[in-house]
Structures are given as C-alpha cells and as structure tokens.
C-alpha cells in the first residue's frame, strides 16, 4: 500500500495518538511502526488478541508500568568480552519484574482460554537463572548487594570498619587540636575517595596535612590530616578490591544473561507487545472503539461510524451508517458543501487502514469490511505550482500511475474527481472511471456535485446513491446520510450562511433561473422527506432500545425474585425434613408440606426442554428418575394411572409427583421391590468430603447436615467426614446422628492409612 494513502487519510496521526497512550519509549516507537497486515488470518488474529487483552485488563485491573529501552544490549552481548554495567542489569531487573507480574496476572485466568494472548506475550521459556541471579545480586535501588559474593562482603565490612575508626579519630583530633571553630561542617567528608575535613580556608595552615580541593566560593578547603594519610591509602586499596569484586559480579550476571539472551529478548519483545496492546485498549476507551469483522470479500458495512480523529477530540461527533448492499460496489455521495461528504469518504478509508492493522475503530457492533489489499485516494486540491501541475492534471497523473494496480481487492476513494475542468466533460470522465472500476470489481466511494453523476448514481446497477442531509428550515448540515437519493449542492445557501453580500446572491439566483437548471425545489423536497424518515427511524430505534432495556430489567427482576423464592422454599423443605427426622411431625404431614413446597417451586421453575421430560408410560416401579424442580434423583415406588402420578422415594422421603415433572436419571432401572425390602440403587463414584474439626457439636451437626444434602443433590455415593481424634466426643455425636439419617446406608471408621478413627466413611443410599 502506498505511503501517500497513509498521509492523505491521516493514518500517522492515529498512530501518534496511539503512541501517546503507551507507557514506555519502546512501546511508543512500536505504536508508530504499526501498519496494515497483508493477510486475513493475521488481521483476525490481531482482532482476537485485542479482544482477549481488553477482557484481561478489564477483569484483572492490570496496569502497565514504564520500562527502559533495552534493544541495544542484545548486539552488545554478541561479544564474549562484553560485560553489562550496573545500569543495564538494573534495567533488566525492572523489565523482568514487570514481565513476571504480567505472567502471573494472566496465569490466574487460565480457565478463560486466552491462548492467543498468552502465545503473543509469553510463549517463551522463562529466563529463571537470569531472574534469580539479578534478584540475588541487585537490591531495589539497583545497587550490588553485599551478599553477591563472600569476598565483596568481606571488603565492604572492612571499608565500613575503617569509616567507623576514622570518624572516631577525627572527633578526637578536632577536640585535641581545638579545631571546632575551623570546621565548616562537624562531619568529615570524602574527596577523591579519601576522607578529608572541610575546614575554613584561613585555618589551613594551623596543622599539618594535604589540601585536596577548594569549594567554588574558595571559603572551604578539603584538608586531609597527616594521621589519615595511611588510613586513606588503605581505603584506596580496599576500594580497588571492591571494584574488582563488583566487576566479577557483573561478569557473572552478564554470563547468565548471555546464556538466556533469547528468552530475555523474547521477554522484552513481549512487554513491548503488551504496551502496544494496552495502548490500543486505552485508545478504544477514549472513543468507544472495538474491533470489527474483516472478511475475505463482501460489501462494506460501517454502523454508527465516526471519523477516528474527530471522535478523539469531540465526543459529540455525529455517527453515520456507511453501507453498500449485496451486489453494490460503488457509492456516490452528493449534497451541499460542509455537509460531511469528504469526512464520510475519509472515515471509510481510515477505518479500513485501522481495522487491517488490528486497531479498535469507532463503529458499532455488526460492522464489517472486506480486506482491501490496496487503498487509492484522490482527494482535495492536488495542484503543484512548483511542478506546474493543476488540480485536474494531478488527478489524471495519479490515476494513470496506479490504474494497473487496481483490482477486486482495491478500494478507490475519489473526492470531487473531475472538478478542476469543464463540468460536462469532468462528469463524463468521472462516470467512465467508475464504470471501469466496476469492471475491475474494485470498491469505490465518490463525492460529487455534478448533476450528471447524481443521475448516474440513481440509474446504474451496482452503484448506490447517498445524500448528506440538511435541516429543511435552517439549511444547516445534520451530518447524516440518506440512501438511494441525491442531494442539492445548496451553494447559494452556504454562501449566504458565510456572509456573501446579498447583492451578489440575488444576481446569482437570477442567473440560475435564466439557466433553467434550478432543481433545488425538488431536491429540497427529497431532503425534507429523508430528514423526516430518519427522524422516524431514530424514534423507532429509541423505542426498541427502551423496550429491550425494560425487558432486560424485568427479566433480571424476575430472576432475582425467582431465586429468592426458590431459596425460601428449599429452606422450608429442609426444615420439614429436619422436623420429620427428629419425629416432631409425622410422615403424612411431612409429605403434605413437601407437596405444597413442590407446587410453589413448579410455579416459578424455568421451562425445561422437552427432551428432559418423558411420558407417563416411561415410568415404571423400580425405575430411577430425576425430580426436575429439585434436581434430585429418586426411585419410583408405585404409580397412579388415573392421576398420572408416581410415588417417588427421594432421600428417604416418599412423595407423589406428576409425570411431567420427572425426567430420566443416569442410572438404569432395576426390578421393583417393596420399600422396606428395597435395596439402594447403584450409587455414584463421586466422593464428597466435609471437615468438622474446630466446631462445637451443634455447629458440626448442622454443617454435616448441609454436607449430606449437598452430596445427595450432586448424586454422590460416598461422604468422608473428618472429625479428628481428640477425646472422641465429636466422633460419637456424628455417629449418633448418622444412625438416624434416612439417606445413610452404612458408615464406618476409615482405614488407618486414611485417617483411622479421625475420619468416618459414609455410604449413601
């Protein structure tokens, strides 16, 4: 794609805005280097990457931090003798710490399946040796730690000991020589890596020593007393040893980086990619952008699209629908000046470049574009005085130069093509160009004021006419498109709006009437009808949105109420079962109350799919079925042909249930036996564990009951109760409870290797 296209459509300005959202210099540079992809797979992958990145950022709250430019260290590592300095290694530490935070954040969303995001950012092997080495040797300020090597620690300890000795000796010296009045500062300082005393210049000859330097004002001299000379000489030796040991540490760390330089390089590139991705997310937030579908071919469809640069600077920009129907490959936009024709054409071209580059665009969901491999643009005044080229000549030269490149995968934008010459000939030439573009099956968007081209748009197959709308009363632009009609140029109205003298306007109107080509009345009528139609469509859209919002609110409210009632009924049902277990009510009364609870649940239960309900003929005694309202399984004990009901044993409670409220269970049916003699159906292999340690007896039994109910709902076959050994009191309470629980078939202490008398294993019916 030609660089001229990017400049005319102002694509670099979008990249400049994107780079402003980056947090690092390499990220900003990468933003400026973005360009459209050549193939559909890459475009779609970039779209998926953005969607997954935006979802991750939104859910995790991860925020990018600045990191330094490190591209230069990798060529440096090519030399075996090269050693990275302390600053470079600290920059690497910042980089790898940030990469680690990002990896861990994304790793916590493993179940979301964001594989494209993971592959683009963190597909490399983690440079663990480098991370560990730098973390062990550099502190949070980037300084080499004492613990980096035994020799370094020893040298630094000796340096600190010298400092302490010098401090004490200097204090004693000042008192002994009565130099308190001579000191500019009560502490000694360091000059040229030697301990010196900052004394007033007029006291410099009071005692023997070496003057190393003066302050800028000359009032202070840095004086080394004779008694510190030997100590300072020793300090110099230690400083040299310290630098040598530090260099060994830098050599060691550089060796680690060199061993894992590919992994480090990938980590760096991954962070640059992440910075660009998060800049795209911020750009989308700035103007409500999103990725749109890009297809192999088809008609362009941009819904509620806004020019990206205008959308960034002005939130009130009017969105416009730009759409070709199936079989149409060209659009001709007409209408008055300042109505938005050129902006409409630029919007199509710029959104295309952005979409093909993996950038979010300000358009509504449902928008799509075919992948154009080339975009050609003739726009604005292209004359050049230096090259002696007029506007029309420049248009023709450009058309001649690119014509052989135009094909079915091209978009051609023509703004006022042919306007720089005789209107009749210019219109004929424009029609011929569009005819030829249709033959090449290219997509074309054109803006024009030529009446002949407007008529051509209405009469030619494969071409769609569109008009920018104006307020019928004020003649001000509405920045809306009306399709399948043409618009008046309203040049006189625009001139009047911008203050052209009335006398000139009156003469122009007379000449227009004399010419006999004034069609403004008809076109004004069409414009007024189109404005009315658009207003009606807007009202319908608002009403539809209002109804959908109301419906969503009602559904949400219903679901909340349904959930609340369901919990209340389930709680009451559990209370009934508890009362029956403790023999506070009889079985008949318990069945009656459970039946009432069941009826209430059925009233609010969501509709079940028809394939989950089977007919009465499918229900036979001994068959295991599922009670849909409770989502629990039970066994059919008997049936009532007349009432089309079945008596079902659910967790030890028998109840009559209508056939339509039952569904098939996982287990196959078994021969019928009387309730007292019936064996438990085959249980699931699912095992549920509950830990009661640390609870009082009443709390433990309440927790156990909830665990049993949950296990039955899940269809579990076994329950493991961890109660601990202790005094055995909690174990006895648990066993006493299990003896009378209807859904328990048997229980026993676990084998010694699985907990012994600290755990009880329960088999459920």
From TrEMBL:
Q: Which InterPro entries does this chain map to?
A: DNA_mismatch_repair_MutS_C (IPR000432), DNA_mismatch_repair_MutS_core (IPR007696), DNA_mismatch_repair_MutS_sf (IPR036187), MSSS (IPR046893), MutS (IPR045076), MutS2 (IPR005747), P-loop_NTPase (IPR027417), Smr_dom (IPR002625)
Name the Enzyme Commission number(s) assigned to this protein. 3.1.-.-, 3.6.4.-
Top enzyme class: hydrolase
Keyword annotations from UniProtKB, A to Z: ATP-binding, Coiled coil, DNA-binding, Endonuclease, Hydrolase, Nuclease, Nucleotide-binding, RNA-binding, rRNA-binding
Q: Which Pfam families match?
A: MSSS (PF20297), MutS_V (PF00488), Smr (PF01713)
Q: Which domain of life is it from?
A: Bacteria
Binding-site positions, ATP: 335-342
Matching entries from PANTHER family are given as:
OS10G0509000 PROTEIN, OS10G0509000 PROTEIN-RELATED
Please describe what this protein does: Endonuclease that is involved in the suppression of homologous recombination and thus may have a key role in the control of bacterial genetic diversity.
Q: How does it assemble?
A: Homodimer. Binds to stalled ribosomes, contacting rRNA.
Question: What is the designated name of this protein?
Answer: Endonuclease MutS2
State the species of origin: Pseudodesulfovibrio methanolicus
